[in-house]
Specification:
single chain; mainly alpha; two-stranded antiparallel sheet
């Protein structure tokens, strides 16, 4: 088992896995299914707890939180009438 860093493996993760991580930025421990998916995608086996879950380091949590903050955008502004047209 290795001490895997999500930041170093980010580009090797598929879009669905990255989306899950961004949608769950407060997660301290990754579920066993996500841990297994990351291991399969990266080819590395992360250090896991007895339940097969990966405990995220503070560095991983900060990285995922920054990714989540960067992908969040303001709600779109809906305009029913174009005020620039006479």
């Amino acid at each position: 088992m290795v001490d895997m860093n999500i930041k170093d493996q980010w580009d090797r993760l598929d879009d669905a896995t990255r989306t899950w991580l961004i949608d769950n930025p407060g997660c301290l421990v990754l579920p066993r299914t996500i841990t297994a998916t990351i291991a399969r995608e990266t080819g590395e086996n992360a250090e896991c707890d007895p339940h097969g879950q990966m405990v995220l380091s503070q560095e991983d949590r900060d990285f995922i939180q920054s990714k989540a903050n960067n992908t969040r955008t303001a709600a779109p502004e809906y305009r029913f009438f174009d005020s620039t047209q006479p």
